[in-house]
């Protein structure tokens, strides 16, 4: 086993393949309430703030109705549009059995994050969950990582952040912890490659081998 005693996971693009669901959920409400449809690229460019923050900006006086419609669509279509990456549930289970403290740090809001983790059957494995709703500053700020360290009492060198985006690398650097970038579904793979993270993985099996068997340095 490697030296890490705490592992912090991002959600979208790391644990779960959710982009199709996210894009469809946003367009469901924008078409309904403002008569506009956005491209995947336009929606991706907004990532950082939570869904609620984006919807407040877009919907104005229709925000509450749009918010309800968004989460209803997100939940009802989750099984058909989102999935956990092959081998990821087994990895999370293996880490938990090994006594590793598990955390989440995601830019998603708490409601959508818990819908996804619950529907994928992994919510109960996580000891600490930091979302865009319960940190003072969202990624690339390091708040969620620092909160995890404070909650667990772990030293910086004992924790590892795992994510697919440049913001995960920046947050990890600011928090002083190592980062593993995963590139099996990254929307910014080229940028991630250029930023030289501490570790890079292209398959869940490679990450599992590293975390459970310690076969890479």
What's the arrangement of secondary structure elements?
Blueprint: E1 6-9, E2 16-17, H1 19-33, H2 40-44, H3 51-59, H4 63-76, H5 78-81, E3 83-84, H6 88-97, E4 101-105, H7 110-119, E5 128-130, H8 143-152, E6 159-163, H9 166-175, E7 178-182, H10 189-194, E8 199-201, H11 204-213
Parallel strand pairs: 1-4, 1-6, 4-5, 6-7, 7-8
Antiparallel strand pairs: 2-3
Could you write a compact summary of the structure shown?
The chain contains eleven helices and eight strands. The protein is of the alpha/beta class.
Could you characterize what this model shows?
The structure is a single chain. The protein has 217 residues and is α/β, with parallel strands linked by helices. The chain contains 11 helices and 8 strands. The mean pLDDT is 94.
Quote the beta fraction. 5-15%
Helical percent range? 40-55%
Rg computed from alpha carbons, rounded to a whole number of angstroms: 17 Å
**Which series of helices and strands comes N to C?**
EEHHHHHEHEHEHEHEHEH
Number of helices: 11
Shape: globular
Q: What strand line-up does the widest sheet have?
A: 5-4-1-6-7-8
Question: Overall mean pLDDT score?
Answer: 94
Structural class: alpha/beta
* N-C termini distance: 11 Å
Largest pleated sheet: 6 strands, parallel
The total of beta strands comes to 8
Low-confidence parts lasting 5 or more residues at pLDDT below 50? Answer: none
């Amino acid at each position: 086993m490697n030296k890490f005693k705490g592992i912090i996971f991002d959600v979208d693009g790391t644990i779960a393949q959710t982009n199709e669901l996210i894009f469809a959920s946003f367009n469901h409400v924008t078409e309904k309430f403002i008569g506009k449809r956005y491209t995947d690229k336009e929606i991706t460019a907004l990532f950082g703030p939570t869904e609620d923050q984006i919807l407040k900006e877009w919907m104005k006086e229709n925000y509450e109705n749009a918010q309800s419609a968004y989460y209803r669509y997100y939940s009802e279509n989750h099984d058909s549009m989102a999935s956990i990456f092959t081998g990821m549930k087994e990895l999370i289970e293996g880490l938990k059995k090994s006594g590793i403290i598990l955390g989440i740090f995601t830019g998603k809001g708490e409601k959508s994050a818990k819908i996804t983790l619950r529907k994928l059957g992994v919510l109960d494995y996580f000891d600490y969950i930091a979302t865009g709703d319960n940190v003072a500053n969202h990624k690339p700020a390091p708040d969620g990582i620092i909160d995890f360290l404070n909650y667990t009492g772990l030293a910086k060198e004992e924790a590892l952040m795992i994510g697919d985006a440049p913001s995960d690398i920046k947050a990890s650097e600011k928090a002083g912890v190592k980062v593993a970038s995963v590139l099996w579904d990254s929307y910014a793979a080229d940028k991630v490659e250029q930023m030289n993270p501490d570790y890079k993985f292209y398959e869940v099996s490679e990450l599992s081998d590293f975390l459970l068997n310690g076969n890479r340095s």
